[in-house]
Known about the structure:
- The protein is of the alpha+beta class.
- The chain has one domain.
- The protein is 34% helix and 29% strand.
- The chain contains three helices and five strands; from the N terminus they run E-E-H-E-E-E-H-H.
- It has helices at residues 27-35, 61-70, 72-79; strands at 12-17, 22-26, 40-42, 48-50, 54-59.
- Strand 3 and strand 4 (48-50) form a beta hairpin.
- The two termini are 14 Å apart.
Amino acid sequence: xxxxxxxEEYKIYDVHMSNKDTFSINGQQKAILMKxxxxxxxxRDGAIINKNFIVDVTLNRKETRDNVLENxxxxxxxxx
Length: 80
């Protein structure tokens, strides 16, 4: 499976902040973060991010690959 074929819920992104902190989120959380009109967004783990201090959001290929391998049976069911 190519990375472009992986559903967003299984992709893992790294959110890099201006203070050098990094948060790992999945594709669904990234969509919520980007669509939010509020400056502060609470993640599922309870972390609160101020969107004004996000430097960049990058796809973590290694974590995504590991997540896909871990959830392989679910992905195969979705493709059928």
